[in-house]
Amino acid sequence: MFLSAAALMTACEVEDKYYGEEPVDSSQRLDGVYAEDWTAHADFLDEKLIEHFMNKDKGTFYSTDGDREGSSWNCYWPQAHAMDVLVDAYLRIPEGDPRRATYEQYMSLWYRNKGNNYAGSDYSGTSGFGNAFTDDAAWIVLTLIRMYEATGEASYLEAAATTYRESVISRWTEDENGGGLRWSMSEENSKNACANGPGALCALRLWANTAEGPERDQYLADAEKIYGWLRATLYNPETGAVADHMKNGVISGGPLTYNQGTFLGAAHELYKATGNTNYLVEAARATRYTMHSMVKEGVLQNEGSGDNALFKGIFIRYAMNLWRDSGVDKVDASLRREIEEFILYNGLICWQQGVLKTEDSNWFFGPDWMTYGSTWDGRLNPQVSATTLVEAMAVLRAE
């Protein structure tokens, strides 16, 4: 049930039911933030990402430094997040800087080489970016849209729209789970937050980049349908936590920063598209749950290696989108300040404790932002999460 209009103005100020460790009062521990040059740090880590993890001939990324383990053939969804870091840098770097042309070339190569898509012809679709995993395809769609927004290259948007039609919204099915996008083509009855949050975001970003008309209207309808299912099934309105998935009508799995980030991101985009403040209340609740209950000593918790090492960067990206939106203040006067202090504190700790800064360390981050990463075992996913965070720091300090 939606809150009344009178309640909306104070809904985010009520005492939420959080479970877990309360965050450190980061506002009292931010002095070190202002002593650092975060623009220089972001520039440096961008180059380290390229140096250690990019195949410069293809614009795509290895899952280990220099493809040391030879396992990058199946590295697909991380491609989106790694390229997003370069889009962040491209948008931040001033006009006339030669790096902009270099990063545009990397985007073009990434597009030409289908983001390292390993899918066979059964699932790659007419765009070449489709995948049997709906979430993988959705992330690629979102990055194609960001590349289009950054450069104006229409082919990126066309590929995004095609991939969305063929490999995202086509995966909606009605079953004992009450609807939802299926997670993968091999898991018919598993409806996961990791597919439905990004799926709703795809529809909303396509809506924002499509001219008025039936196609645009359909994107918004898709987003409301996908998000509506996610909110009704996996979202806990009392706490703001998002469960992992529903399979055969049974909800399983606890909250992950990935799912918190995409849920709040979709809710925020729906608020911008419709003006309905209920969406922003839900975005705020999911954001605050993450900042209060998914932390260790005020820092986003270590959720593990492998795919999980990318999750924190996803939350940071969509929390940053909330922070950038000054219209949020009309509904929730303190949310943007809370996000800013939280990200600044996480960035400071990650920079101070998450990487060994010696000449022979290679500057590899690990999945725990409070512990030095390996000096020799570089992994793309934690590197991308940490670099996403430091890119956010550069924007926060600049603005």
Structure in words:
The protein has 399 residues and is mainly alpha-helical. It has a single domain (21-398), classed as Glycosyltransferase, CATH 1.50.10. Helix content is 53%, strand content 6%. It has helices spanning 5-8, 38-53, 77-92, 98-112, 121-124, 134-151, 154-167, 193-208, 214-233, 257-274, 277-293, 311-324, 335-353, 380-398, and strands at 54-55, 60-61, 182-184, 187-192, 245-247, 250-252, 295-296, 299-300. A four-stranded antiparallel beta sheet has the order 3-4-5-6. It has a two-stranded antiparallel sheet with strand order 1-2. It has a two-stranded antiparallel ribbon with strand order 7-8. Strand 5 (245-247) and strand 6 (250-252) form a beta hairpin. Helix 2 runs antiparallel to helix 14 (380-398). Mean pLDDT is 93; it is low at 1-19.
C-alpha geometry: globular
Q: The CATH topology is what? A: Glycosyltransferase
Poorly predicted sequence stretches spanning 5 or more consecutive residues: 1-19
State the CATH architecture. Alpha/alpha barrel
Summarize the helices and strands and which ones pair or pack:
Elements (H helix, E strand, L loop, with lengths): L4 H4 L29 H16 E2 L4 E2 L15 H16 L5 H15 L8 H4 L9 H18 L2 H14 L14 E3 L2 E6 H16 L5 H20 L11 E3 L2 E3 L4 H18 L2 H17 L1 E2 L2 E2 L10 H14 L10 H19 L26 H19 L1
Antiparallel strand pairs: 1-2, 3-4, 4-5, 5-6, 7-8
Helix pairs in contact: 2-3, 2-14, 3-4, 3-6, 3-14, 6-7, 6-8, 7-8, 8-9, 8-10, 9-10, 10-11, 10-12, 12-13, 12-14, 13-14
